[in-house]
Design brief:
heterodimer; A: 112 residues; mainly beta; 11 strands; B: 111 residues; 5-stranded antiparallel β-sheet; 0% helix; globular
């Protein structure tokens, strides 16, 4: 089945130790998004790719970066995680604004 | 700046009751509105998508309505079941690739 897959599902990392989260999709969608959702909060868009074009939200910390080596894969890199980066990270894909965005199951990141 | 509010933050109902979840948004210039379900520690599952030109969408026991001019949407759940227990989020799409989410309503259906 076509879907959005995030790995790992759970990640514990030490304060300041770089971490990479991955997202893959089999839908051939041209837009991929990364959202951050802290406990009991609304998901917040960090950035998105439209094909190879990278779009960073204005208030996304510099600590967060992303790579999209091909249509199917997108990575979220956190260079020096802080305790405040503990959250659920959600990847989503879509063709364009309008149609449904399809979400993955998320990666729960804990920074200790 | 678009803001989305969901009231109540939490709701507890006995099994079998019909219930309504509310969502309001500040900017009526939207492309569509989606309702999502989120189980604890999991990702988001899209339940219903309403385009800006539509008034409602139905899927099984779920019915979502949209009143764009007043900036409101409701999600109606008929004959609630314990398996409906989850957090329900609404999100609006303003056409800038960004979904703006509410914080959600945590629903508990008591057997």
């Amino acid at each position: 089945d076509a879907m959005v897959i995030q790995n790992p599902r759970y990640q514990v990392t030490q304060f300041g130790k770089p971490v990479t989260l991955s997202c893959s999709q089999t839908l051939n969608h041209n837009v991929m998004y990364w959202y951050q959702q802290k406990s009991s909060q609304a998901p917040k868009l960090l950035f998105h790719y439209y094909d190879k074009d990278f779009n960073n939200e204005a208030d996304t910390p510099d600590n967060f970066q992303s790579r999209r080596p091909n249509t199917s894969f997108c990575f979220l890199d956190i260079r020096s995680p802080g305790l405040g980066d503990t959250a659920m990270y959600l990847c989503a894909t879509s063709f364009s604004p309008g149609p449904k965005a399809l979400f993955g199951q998320g990666t729960r990141l804990t920074v200790v | 700046k678009q803001e989305v509010t969901q009231i109540p933050a939490a709701l507890s109902v006995p099994e079998g009751e019909n219930l309504v979840l509310n969502c309001s948004f500040t900017d009526s210039a939207i492309y569509n509105l989606q309702w999502f379900r989120q189980d604890p520690g999991k990702g988001l599952t899209s339940l219903l998508l309403i385009q800006s030109s539509q008034r409602e969408q139905t899927s099984g026991r779920l019915n979502a309505s949209l009143d764009k001019s007043s900036g409101r949407s409701t999600l109606y759940i008929a004959a609630s079941q314990p398996g409906d227990s989850a957090t329900y989020l609404c999100a609006v799409n303003t056409g800038s690739y960004q979904l703006t989410f509410g914080k959600g309503t945590k629903l508990s259906v008591i057997p």
